[in-house]
Amino acid sequence: MLFSKPIAVIFFILLLAAVTRAQTDSSYIETEDVLEDVLQEPTGQSDDSNLFEILEQLKRNPIDLNKATVADLQQIPGVTFHTAQIIVKHRKRYGYFFSPQELNAVQGLSSDIIKKMIPFVTVIRPTEKETEKQREQGGFDNILSNTNFIMRSRVSNDLQQRKGFIENKFEGSKPKVYNRLYLRYSQHYQFGYIAEKDAGETSLNEFYSIHFAIRDLGIIKTLVISDYLIEFGQGLALWSPYGFSKGSDAIYPVKRRGKIVRPYSSATENRFLRGLAASVKFDNFIISAFYSKNKIDANIDSLTGGILSTPEDGFHRTEGELAKKDAAEEKLWGGMIHYTLGDFLTTGFLYFNSKFSNPFLPKNIFDLQGDSFNYYSFTYDAILISFNLFGEITYNGTSVASINSLQLSVTSDFAFMASIRSYPRNFFNLHGYAFGERSGATTNEFGIYTGIRWRTPIGLLNFYYDQFKFPYATFFNPLPGEGDEFLLDLLSKPARKINTRFRFKYENKDITVKTDNVKQLVKRLRQVYRFELIYNVSRQLRLKGRFEYNNYRVKATGNSEDGYLFFQDIRYAPNSNFNFYGRIIFFRTDSFNSAIYEYENDLTGVLTNLALFGEGIRWYLIFRYRPFRSATISAKYSETYKPKEREISSGYNTIFKNLDNRVSLQIDIHL
Q: What DSSP character marks residue 47?
C-alpha cells in the first residue's frame, strides 16, 4: 500500500504547523470560483479535469489587454462580446493599459466581471516588448532569466483493495500517477511532456504526450511538432476531446472559442493529433496546414479485421483492455484558411481527410462505415452593433450538419442567446465536439436552445430552455426520442458577506424501459431543487452549505424516486501561501436512478464528480501549502461510507466493503 491513513494525517499536521511562513499567489482560488459559475452538475459520473485544463491554459497564456481583440477576450468565462467591445473601445480611446487593475476604471464593467477576468489577463506595454527582445538577444544569464520551468507530479492511491487486484486481473500496481513538464522560453517557445498511468496499469508512461511549439514569431502564428489539437469554428468538424456544455452560465458554453492550432496538454488518451501543424499570418489571413499519424484503441473483429468500436476510456489494465491498445491507426491531413476583418467579421474554411488502417463495421445502415472520410466545413462569426451571429456548416460527403447561433447583448448586464443545431443521423465525426444535449455527440440530434443572463437588482439570473429530439433509433432507445429541459439559477447577495444561490432544473426525456420482456419508450421526468448559502466570514474564511432535492419519475409506470443531499464545507486561507478545504456530505437516494452528482474541490488541475446514491456519508480534506515561492505541495484525503452496503462499485472496481477512501499527493514547481 503506497500510503496509510496515519502517515497522511501526520503529514497534514506538519504542514499545517508551518503555515505562517511564506506569501505567494492564490489565483487558483479565483479559477475554482470561475469553474463553479460555469459548470452544471453532471448527469453522469466522469472525470472532467480537461475543463480545468481550459482555464489553466488561459492562466499560463494570459490575454494581453493591449493587443487583445474582441474574439480573444471572449475566451474568458463570463465575458460577452459586448463586454469585450467596451474594453477594446476604452483602449482605443485612452491608450494602452498599464495594469490589469485599470479595468476598474473602464466604464460599463461590473466588479464581478473584473474579478473573473483578472486571473486570465496581463498587460505588456510596447517598451516591455523591446526590453524582452533585448534580453532574448543577450547572453546565457539572460536566456536563463527568460526560461520558465513548470512541473506537476501527482499520485493517487485507493486505500481499499478492488476486485481487479484481488483476483489478479489487473497487470499493474494500484497508484494512479501523473507527471507533466513544461519548458518555456520567452513567449515564443515551449516544450511539453505529459505521462500518466491509471490504477492497474504497468508503466509510468502507459500514456505519454510530447510537443514542441512556437508562437507569434514573425509570420508564424503557431507551429507544433508532435502532439496537437485543431480547434475550428463551433466544433462540428475538428475540436479538442472536451468542452463546456449546458451549465449554470446560460451564455458562455454555447459558443466555441477555438485557437486554430494549439499544443496538446491533456491526459485524455484519444482524439488528439500526432504529427505536424502550422499556422502563418498574412495581413488579414491565417493559413494553416496539418498532418497526423496516430494509433488509437480499437476493438477489432477477428474474422473481417474491421473496427467494431473505438473505446475512449484509456484503460489498459487487463488482458482484454491491452488487446485493444493501439489496435488501429489513423492518418489525417488537411488545411484551413481564416479571414478576419477588424473586430467585425471572421470566416474560415476547412478541409481534411481521415483514413484508417481498418474499415469500420456498421451495426446499422446509418453507422460509420468504410476507412476513408472527407470533411468540408465553413464557419463564420460576425458582430453587428449589439448582435453576434456565429455558426458552422459541415459536409461529410453524405450529409450536412450545422449549428447557427445569435447572441444579443445591449449592455454588459444583459445577454440573450438563441441557437439551432441540426446533426443528421448519418453524420459521423470522431473528431468533433459541438454544443448539444449529448455533450460532444454531433450526430442524430436536432435542438433549439435559448438562454438569458441578466444582472438584476436582486442578483445574477441565468435561465435556459432547450428542446431536442433524436430522429433515429439508437442502441439505447429502439424508437426516435425527444425531450426538453430548462434551468433557472439565481445568485444573490442579500448581505455584504452572504451569497445565496437557488437553482431549479427540469428534465423531461424519453427513455427505454422493459416491461413484460418488451422494450418501450416512456417519458422520464427529473426535477432538481437546490439552495446554497455562502458566508464569507472574512477574507480568509468562507463557509458554504448546500441542500439538494432530486425527484425522478417515470410517467408510464408511475415509478417515483427521491434523493436528498446536504453538505457543509469550509475554505480557510490565512495567507496566500496556504489553503485548506474541508467538506462533509450526507446523502440518501432510493436508487442509482435518483443519484445526485456534485463537483467537489480537488487537487489543482483535477475536476471530478461522483454519483452519490443509496445512503451514506462522504467527507474530504484538502490542503495546499507553498513552502517556497516556486513550489506548492497539495494533498487530499477522501472517504465515502455506506453503512447499509456490503460492497461498493461494480465489475473489477468492486470494493468488498462499505468504505471507499483515497489519498492523493501533488507537487507543483514553477521556476
A: B
Whether 300 and 356 have beta carbons less than 8 Å apart is answered as no
Ranges of beta strands (E only) in 342-444 are: 345-360, 370-384, 387-395, 400-411, 414-423
Cβ atoms 159, 152 nearer than 8 A: no
**Three-class SS string for 234-290?**
CCCCCCCCCCCCCCCCCCHHHCCCCCEEEECCCCCCCCCEEEEEEEEEECCEEEEEE
**What tens digit of pLDDT does each residue of 71-84 get?**
888 888 878 888 88
Strand locations in 537-658 (E): 541-554, 559-575, 578-589, 596-600, 608-612, 615-628, 631-641
Which has the closest alpha carbon to 79: 40, 48, 118?
A: 118
pLDDT digits (tens, 9 = 90+) for 169-226: 998 999 999 999 999 988 889 999 999 999 999 989 899 999 999 998 999 999 999 9
Architecture per CATH, domain 63-140, reads as Orthogonal Bundle (1.10)
pTM value? 0.87
Domain ranges of the chain: 63-140
Positive or negative torsion for Cα 163, 168, 170, 173 = positive
**Are 590 and 562 spatial neighbours (Cβ–Cβ below 8 Å)?**
yes
* Chain centroid offset of residue 630 CA: 26
- Which residue type occupies 533? L
154 SS3 class: strand
Question: Which residues are bridge partners to 155 per DSSP?
Answer: 177, 665
Q: What is the DSSP letter of 425?
A: T
